[in-house]
């Protein structure tokens, strides 16, 4: 039976037999990509685990130099963005094209808000001379002998939040792409896979932050300064 | 030799196939056809093999004499670094999976195309970009850190262009991760009707297991290299002992990838061998289930042993004991494969076509390489032979004696299917013999050299090691000659080789049930599978007479 | 469009409840950080983070309705991260404990 004769559409490309098969394949593909991301961030989580285990007090003091309420607020912003993202996917499932655009735009705005707060936090670190590898590095509350080790915390802080922010920026780019296409009516209840898999990516980046927040901001806060 | 008059090129049949359906440059630069992408990878990786080989030849020439005379020390360090980087990431990792895997996995599954064709195309061009960056780094002076890039040398003291090479390797990692992702989804989603998991060719099982390693391990390498690059660029000092950092942390992250990476390099080769042993014994692979599951076992166990590369690094003795213990287990599934291949031969109808010669070579040489791996897994022995030529010989027995034999065997086996032409059997057998002899002459002396204490990565050595070094270099010359021969006759065959039928070897597998070369979407009619793998009762081969 | 149950469409109310739970958990984890729980501070913080992760994964990422293969992939990823962390820590937690010089 010559079955490569079906015309290729967005929802049914030539290598697939049914639209459902294609959607399942795309979803599986995105999940596999996400576990590559788990392992990518995992390398830094390993470095964090090693150094925090070796230098618990230094890490605790360094952690208190971060603003926990701001971090918590930023976490909430990201959680809101995950809510609006899943609502965009839901709109896709229901074929509500204008709601898809609406929720995607909201998600993007929350994402920008998060990045804005992050930028402010980083600027604060610059002003307080908490940048590792620089001669002026100095962390209050630690003796001179432990100043060098405190740089390890901040190396991890910048590397991990920086990588996370880079993923947010890529996510923002993906959202813009989706918004442009959604406004052209490209997505419907029969084909909203790009919104769905982009949602998976966005939620994953949120989950990374769900771990970064306590690991970086909330180390032994009860010890005070 | 062939009876066809050499002056007349045999005419190709009329029907269009994937090669002739479109011949514009654009269709070759931007194909979404997995077969064309596979060919592009095969061409690119072969070119990289040649480049890596030239670097090796230069090193072997230097090592003819005990003193440093051909190249200065820094240049020698750059040679072995680039040899390693190019061979590992530009040849060994991509060649069989992205080359033969891309071409044949969809065919073997009865599929029309791979799951994500445009992603596949992206993976090729990302490979090219990564390769270009690495080669650019080579031109800019290369790196002298060894392919392992250990800090603190790589982050602070090295006078060379380490960061560009790191970026190039990072980019190459993205290419191979994408390939792995594509294969996993393809195997899950696009198996044709009747093709259950336990009816798939063992080559597909091995590519699937390889893909699992690709997606889980490569990202950790990416992070290890990224941290080194950040350290080198911004001076953060993540691995700096002066700050309380630990260079061994880098080694853990690097080898978490690089040990499974050696299974990326050997599992696809083992998959090829399963196909070859079966076809040229005309018998199903003995213990199919064991061979299939042993691929998965190798993939999983391979992740638990990386610390055996850190035995003398400063890693705790306790961790060394744990990793040494675990390292013995990973040999078991490999041994299971060797036993099953051997049992497949028993009472088989064996023919000695060139691919079979390479398969025999693989089994013998991989066994030697694998057994010497067990010596290295023993903590006590490793302390004495680590960083000597013993280790160099061990991994070359597996990578060259193993993987490259399988690569060449697969090239000959699938050449008719890919090109529609037969290669000249007589010349091919001769070159297989030359390669086998050249290989052993190159690398067996290195086991002895290492055991006697000659360190690796040294351009100068005590005089008493010269004889063995000369033997090794002589072997390398023979090996080089052996490699040259297929390059010549394969190209010759494209115009003058006998026209290949759909199934010249009488092999099973869906790739042989379509024309040589296959049509654009692989099958004129979607096949339905009704029998087990390697079922020779239903295959009628149109065998070519051996010239 | 049918099959595999992944067309089950959750209600807005469900998503709102999950969001509220996530926000509450965030406030709780921040507040608890200022309470002296000794070594259990880390355990509590990670536990709350895991609960938040599960909420996002199960509801927002639809793992509740996903195929077994998807769940296997997710569990596999987490397992591999654990392999990386634990086997690495077998080195860093045991430096010098066997009393052998230099090890």
The N- and C-terminal alpha carbons of chain A lie at a distance of 76 Å
Largest interface: A-C, 53 and 53 residues
Tally of helical runs of chain A: 6
Q: How would the global form of chain C be characterised?
A: flat
Global Rg of chain A:
22 Å
Beta-strand residue fraction of chain A: under 5%
Mean of all residue-level pLDDT scores of chain C: 90
N→C terminal distance of chain C: 62 Å
Globally, the shape of chain A reads: elongated
Poorly predicted sequence stretches spanning 5 or more consecutive residues of chain A:
none
Helix-strand string of chain C: HHH
Strand portion of chain C: under 5%
Largest sheet of chain C at a glance?
Answer: none
- H-E order of chain A: HHHHHH
How is the quaternary structure best described? heterotrimer
Please describe what this structure looks like.
The complex is a heterotrimer of chains A (225), B (547) and C (103). Chain A is mainly α. Chain A has 6 helices and no strands. In chain A, helix 5 packs antiparallel against helix 6 (193-217). Chain B has helices at 25-29, 34-62, 73-109, 117-139, 153-157, 162-189, 202-234, 247-281, 288-301, 317-329, 331-345, 354-377, 379-385, 389-419, 425-452, 466-496. Residues 1-7 of chain B have low confidence and may be disordered. Chain C has helices at 12-32, 40-60, 68-92. The radius of gyration of chain C is 20 Å and the shape is flat. Classes of the chains: A mainly alpha (225), B mainly alpha (547), C mainly alpha (103). Chains in contact: A-B, A-C, B-C. At the B-C interface, helix 8 and helix 10 of B face helix 3 of C.
């Amino acid at each position: 039976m010559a079955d490569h004769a079906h015309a290729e559409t967005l929802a049914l490309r030539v290598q697939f037999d049914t639209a459902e098969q294609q959607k399942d394949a795309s979803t599986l593909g995105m999940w596999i990509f996400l576990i590559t991301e788990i392992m990518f961030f995992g390398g830094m989580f390993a470095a964090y685990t090693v150094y925090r285990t070796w230098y618990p007090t230094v890490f605790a003091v360094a952690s208190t130099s971060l603003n926990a309420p701001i971090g918590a607020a930023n976490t909430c912003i990201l959680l809101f963005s995950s809510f609006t993202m899943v609502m965009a996917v839901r709109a896709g499932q229901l074929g509500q094209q204008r709601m898809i655009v609406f929720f995607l735009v909201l998600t993007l705005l929350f994402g920008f808000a998060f990045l804005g707060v992050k930028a402010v936090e980083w600027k604060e670190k610059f002003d307080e001379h908490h940048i590792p590898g620089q001669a002026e590095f100095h962390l209050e509350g630690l003796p001179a002998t432990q100043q060098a080790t405190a740089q390890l915390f901040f190396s991890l802080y910048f590397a991990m939040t920086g990588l996370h922010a880079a993923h947010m920026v890529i996510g923002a780019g993906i959202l813009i792409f989706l918004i442009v296409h959604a406004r052209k009516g490209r997505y419907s209840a029969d084909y909203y896979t790009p919104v769905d898999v982009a949602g998976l990516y966005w939620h994953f980046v949120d989950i990374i932050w769900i771990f970064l927040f306590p690991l970086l901001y909330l180390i032994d806060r009860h010890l005070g300064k | 030799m062939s009876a066809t008059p050499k002056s007349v090129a045999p005419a190709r049949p009329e029907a269009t196939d994937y090669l002739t359906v479109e011949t514009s440059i654009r269709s070759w630069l931007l194909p979404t056809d997995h077969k064309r992408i596979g060919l592009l990878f095969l061409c690119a990786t072969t070119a990289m093999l040649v480049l890596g080989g030239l670097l090796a030849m230069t090193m072997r020439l230097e090592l003819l004499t005990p003193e440093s005379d051909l190249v200065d020390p820094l240049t020698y360090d750059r040679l072995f670094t680039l040899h390693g980087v190019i061979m590992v990431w530009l040849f060994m990792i991509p060649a069989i999976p992205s080359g033969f895997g891309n071409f044949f996995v969809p065919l073997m599954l009865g599929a029309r195309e791979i799951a994500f064709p445009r992603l596949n195309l992206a993976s090729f061009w990302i490979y090219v970009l990564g390769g270009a960056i690495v080669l650019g780094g080579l031109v800019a002076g290369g790196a002298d850190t060894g392919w392992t890039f250990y800090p603190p040398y790589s982050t602070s003291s090295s006078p060379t262009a380490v960061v560009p090479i790191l970026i190039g390797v990072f980019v190459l990692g993205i290419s191979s991760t994408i390939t792995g992702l594509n294969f996993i989804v393809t195997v899950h989603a696009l198996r044709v009707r009747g093709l259950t998991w336990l009816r798939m060719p063992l080559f597909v099982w091995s590519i699937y297991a390889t893909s699992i390693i690709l997606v889980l391990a490569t990202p950790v390498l990416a992070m290890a290299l990224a941290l080194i690059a950040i350290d080198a660029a911004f001076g953060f000092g993540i691995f700096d002992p002066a700050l309380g950092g630990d260079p061994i942390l880098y080694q853990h992250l690097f080898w978490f990838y690089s040990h499974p990476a050696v299974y990326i390099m050997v599992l696809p080769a083992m998959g090829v061998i399963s196909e070859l042993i079966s076809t040229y014994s005309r018998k199903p692979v003995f213990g199919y289930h064991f061979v299939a599951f042993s691929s998965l076992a190798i993939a999983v166990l391979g992740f638990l042993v990386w610390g055996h590369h850190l035995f003398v690094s400063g890693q705790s003795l306790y961790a060394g004991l744990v990793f040494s213990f675990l390292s013995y287990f990973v040999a078991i599934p490999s041994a299971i494969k060797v036993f099953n291949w051997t049992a497949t031969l028993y009472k088989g109808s064996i023919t000695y076509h060139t691919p079979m010669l390479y398969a025999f070579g693989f089994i013998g040489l991989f066994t030697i390489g694998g057994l010497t791996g067990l010596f290295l897994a023993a903590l006590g022995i490793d302390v004495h032979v680590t960083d000597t030529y013993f280790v160099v010989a061990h991994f070359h027995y597996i990578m060259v004696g193993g993987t490259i034999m399988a690569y060449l065997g697969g090239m000959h086996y699938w050449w008719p299917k890919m090109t529609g032409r037969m290669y000249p059997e007589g010349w091919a057998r001769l070159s297989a013999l030359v390669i086998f002899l050249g290989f052993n002459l190159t690398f067996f002396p290195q086991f002895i050299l290492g055991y006697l204490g000659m360190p690796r990565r040294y351009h100068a050595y005590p005089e008493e090691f010269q004889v063995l070094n000369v033997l090794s270099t002589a072997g390398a010359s023979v090996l080089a000659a052996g490699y040259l021969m297929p390059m010549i006759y394969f190209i010759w065959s494209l115009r003058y080789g006998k026209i290949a039928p759909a199934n010249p070897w009488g092999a099973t597998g869906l790739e042989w049930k379509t024309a040589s070369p296959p049509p654009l979407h692989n099958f004129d009619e979607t096949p339905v599978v009704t029998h087990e793998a390697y079922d020779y009762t239903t295959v009628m081969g149109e065998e070519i007479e051996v010239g | 469009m049918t099959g595999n149950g992944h067309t089950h469409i959750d209600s807005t109310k469900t998503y709102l409840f999950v969001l509220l739970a996530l926000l509450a958990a965030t406030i709780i984890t921040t507040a608890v950080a200022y309470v002296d729980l000794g070594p259990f501070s880390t355990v509590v913080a990670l536990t709350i983070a895991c609960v938040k992760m599960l909420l996002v994964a199960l509801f927002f990422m639809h793992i509740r309705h996903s195929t077994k293969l998807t769940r296997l992939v997710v569990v596999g990823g987490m397992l591999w991260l654990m392999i990386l962390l634990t086997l690495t820590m077998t080195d860093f937690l045991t430096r010098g404990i066997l009393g052998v010089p230099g090890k």
